[in-house]
From TrEMBL:
UniProt domain AttH: residue ranges: 70-189
Protein's recorded name: AttH domain-containing protein
Pfam families listed in its UniProt record: CrtC, Lipocalin_9
InterPro entries from the UniProt entry: AttH-like_dom_sf, AttH_dom, Fungal_Dehydratase/Hydratase
Source lineage: Bacteria, Bacillati, Actinomycetota, Actinomycetes, Micromonosporales
Coiled coil: none
Length: 333
């Protein structure tokens, strides 16, 4: 492992066979044959300005076989509780994601750069973001290789959990100079077809000593698989089973738009890592996205508890898909 200045090279040779090449896989991928094959990239940022702690989401996804392309932008002011989101479909003629390097352009979004440095600019009717990102830690390849099974089909994913972030955020008619940290996620593969019992949860955790963790929990009619990838600052990995999140999910919020219910509290137990956390959503109730992949929640969150036996607190981001309302005939709650 090489060190450059205060940070760590974004690409670290762990010796684990890799299914992804982060330096080139930021580019658009040729679509698979599956009807719901998708190509996605997202940014979740925890940034501060004078007197404000903001959570920011930027997400775009291309579902070429469904002729669907989407842009999502959301901001939570965790200091005041203010929240706003923007969702829109993009016409094929207006959507450009280059086949070489990171070069995304569409109405409302420009995202360019490479695995070390990126620039993201969004413009919406109510707010704008203009930030520069610099990787300060290694790439996280999910499951250590960059691919894992999701409801019986392979998904490819790598993240940059530690990206120093500076720039400006304009909301409520005011421009803020912001700084903080972002988590970039890059994913492609077949999006699972919806069934009555399918639910998934994705959580990110920033932990002491520079560790970053991503929890994936998938519930189908037959099984619930919950596991975590932990990335250490030197590029090494830890993989561990997590007790099913459905067992510790609580305080459901019902969407007035769709009637679907989502947890707002969780108990997270990772016995082999001596990790026991409680997490809660910090954004307002108006956080369900109804377009794109179907109704789902993306929200800022916070956690407290113990990691490897040490007391911790931190901020997080949560994505949930599916209806979490208990069903009498469901195999899972």
């Amino acid at each position: 492992m090489k060190r450059t200045g205060p940070g760590i090279d974004a690409i670290v040779d762990t010796g684990i066979p890799s299914a992804v090449d982060p330096a080139t896989d930021l580019a658009a991928h040729p679509p698979g044959a599956e009807r719901t094959w998708g190509d996605a990239i997202s940014l979740t940022s925890e940034v501060t300005a004078a007197g404000h702690d903001f959570g920011v989401l930027v997400w775009t996804c291309n579902l070429p076989n469904l002729n669907k392309r989407m842009l999502t932008f959301a901001v939570t002011d965790e200091t005041t509780g203010w929240y706003k989101d923007y969702q829109t479909d993009i016409a094929e003629s207006d959507y450009a994601w280059g086949a070489s390097g990171l070069n995304i352009k569409m109405p409302g979004l420009t995202w360019t750069g490479n695995i070390q440095k990126m620039s993201v600019k969004t413009t919406t009717p109510w707010g704008c973001l203009d930030v520069h990102l610099e990787a300060t830690g290694p790439v996280m390849k999910y499951a250590g290789t960059g691919t894992y099974p999701s409801f019986g089909v392979p998904i490819w994913q790598f993240d940059l959990p530690s990206m120093r972030t500076t720039g400006s955020l304009t909301v409520q008619g005011q421009t803020h100079n912001v700084s903080g940290e972002s988590w970039m996620a890059r994913q492609w593969g077949r999006v699972p077809a919806e069934d009555p019992w399918m639910r998934w949860t994705w959580m990110t955790l920033r932990l002491p000593g520079g560790d970053n963790a991503a929890i994936w929990d998938g519930v189908s009619g037959e099984t619930e698989n919950c596991w975590v990838t932990v990335l250490h600052p030197d590029g090494s990995y830890g993989l561990a089973a997590v007790k099913p999140l459905a067992d510790g999910a609580d305080k459901l919020w019902a969407s007035p738009a769709t009637g679907k219910a989502y947890p707002t509290r969780w108990r997270i137990d990772i016995p082999s890592l001596k990790t026991h956390l409680t997490m809660h959503i910090t954004s307002t109730e108006a956080r369900e996205f109804t377009g794109g992949l179907g109704p789902h929640v993306e929200a800022t969150a916070a956690f407290t508890g113990a990691y490897e036996g040490r007391e911790v607190t931190g901020r997080s981001y949560v994505q949930m898909y599916g209806n979490w309302r208990p069903q009498p005939t469901s195999p899972h709650r």
